[in-house]
Each structure stands twice: as structure tokens, then as C-alpha cells.
Structure prediction request, 258 residues.
Amino acid sequence: MGEFSLAQLPRLQKKMVKKHRTKVKTKDSDKSLEWQRAWEHEYQKQGIPSSFRNTPARVVTEFYAWLERRNFQGSQAADLGCGRGRNSLYLASHGFSVTALDLLKENSDYVAHQAKLMKLPIVAHAQNVSHPWPITTNSLDIAIDIFCYKHITNKDSQRLYREELARTLKPTGYYFVSLASENDGFYGPLLSHSPAPNHKLVVDPYVQIESYLYSISDLIQEFADHFIVMEVDEQESSSPMHGKEYTRKVLNFIMKKA
Ligand SMILES: C[S@@+](CC[C@H](N)C(=O)[O-])C[C@H]1O[C@@H](n2cnc3c(N)ncnc32)[C@H](O)[C@@H]1O
Prediction:
């Protein structure tokens, strides 16, 4: 990762970090290819619920209910890291025109195909969300990110994502992000083997997908460059990861532009 010193780590972890560094040959500034391969592997194995679930994430339906309670009027949405499109399809069936972005072409093609079959207004693009978005400045009423931001395991790439979000979200718009807490039952214990503990980086041992874990204050601080947090909660549930049941702890944030 180049952002920490081996000398800072306990001896046992040094071996793991060296192994990780040797495997990861791509530049920190563009890990698209490495991420793409790991996600292709995951979608073949289908170990993570979002890889096989067709129903919208409960947190997205709750965010929509939150908007409705405020009588929110808006029509333009983005789904960042849309996967197989379950949340894009939900938003589109509730009146939004959705721009859906995902690293994998298989996913964006699938989402476009589903949208066409269901006659829903979704435009899907295959692209890294830390590269410039094909979205007009100040045009989005809402943007959602369900377990994508945490997988952008490079702090510069995350900053570029936040800049694109700040550019494209209307001053009246809302951003909803959902990610794993550092106390999550699956990811949390992996912190003891973190190759970069200063960033709370963990590596899924089944498919080698990297994640950053967060506390509530970590994320509020990270987004403070462009956003203020309006609502936050930590939800506990039980769900399977790679065939085993875990107690999951998920952080959900609703933000607007500062
Ligand atoms: C855990 S899945 C969640 C998918 C979807 N949001 C859902 O809830 O069904 C994460 C998705 O983010 C995508 N992804 C990961 N890193 C990305 C990046 N840098 N740019 C675009 N998409 C990315 C992956 O391809 C994957 O489809």
C-alpha cells in the first residue's frame, strides 16, 4: 500500500504484508484490474449475499421510506457499485431515473438487460467509481452506495470518489452509504491480521477482496471534506458469508453536501 512502514507492524504480520505486496503488482493509483479479478472470482463463487440476492437491500427500502416521510421530490439517482442491480431496479420502480455504475462489464450488461426487460429507466456503465463519472454536475437528487465505498482500498481513490460525489450531487440531494462496521462479525476479526492496521484494511480470506473497516467517527471524519452527516445508525443482523452464518454489524449514513 506504500502508506505504512513495515517497522510499525508486529513480526507475525510482516510476513503477511510482504506476501500481499508481492502479489499486488498494480500501482496504488489504479488498482482497477486487481479489484476486477477479485470481484469476478466472487461473482463465480457467490459467497457474499449481494452476489446472489435479487431483492433490494433492506437499508435501501428504509432510506426510500425516509425520503417519503420528508415528501422528498426528486427523480435522478445514482447507484455506485450497483452489482447485479437489485437496488437500481428498486429505485427505478419507485420513479427514479438511475445511473448505475459497476467495475464489472458483466454486471452493467446484466443490469441494462434487466432494465430493458422491465422497461425501467436505468443506464448502466462499467467503470471504476474512483474515475470521473458520466454524470452531469449538480444533477443527482440521490446517490446510494451499498457496500462499494469500503472496497475502494486506496485513500486517493476514495478522495476522487468523494470529489465526484460532491460534483454531481445537487445541493438539495442526499447520499446514502452502507458499509461494514469494525465490529462486524465477519470482517471485524480479520483486523488482527490486517496488512495495514492504520487504515483498518482487511482481506476476505475466501476471495481476497480487500475492505476498509470503519467506526462511525472514522467515516464522518473522512467525508467531512465535502459532506455533513444527517443520520447515522448501526444495524445488527444475522446473514451468511461464504456459507456460514455471522452476526453482521452495518453502519448506515445519510449525508448532504456541506
Ligand atoms: C458487495 S457488492 C454490492 C453490490 C450492490 N451494491 C448490492 O448491494 O447488491 C460490491 C460491488 O461493488 C463493485 N465495486 C467494487 N469496487 C468498485 C469500484 N472501484 N468501482 C466500481 N465498482 C466497484 C463490485 O464489482 C461489486 O459489484
Summary: The longest strand covers residues 227-241. The pocket of S-adenosylmethionine is lined by residues 35, 39, 48, 50, 57, 81-83, 86-87, 101-104, 107, 128-130, 146-148, 151-152 (CB under 6 Å). Strands lie at 76-80, 97-102, 122-126, 140-146, 169-180, 201-203, 210-212, 227-241, 244-257.
